[in-house]
Amino acid sequence: MDERVTLTTDEGEDIEFEIVTELALGEDFYAIMQPVKPLDGVAEDEALVFRIIETDDGDEYELVIDDDILDGVFESYNNMIEDL
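The structure corresponding to this sequence follows.
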């Protein structure tokens, strides 16, 4: 997937991410994304997980910090990759 999205922090800073993949887990949808440019606190080979929230104005992304959800998303992603 070669799609990018720009997210704005609470401080008003725009950060561009490349979407690695989107997947469903339970009734929620998630995006695994990597910052396009180096980002403090995020290793170059590290990805972040965002919950996708559909709104009338388009998709919104909420950073996931819950370890159980993160584990589930990455487990689903790894299973998807193994199936390919």
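The chain has one domain: 3-83.
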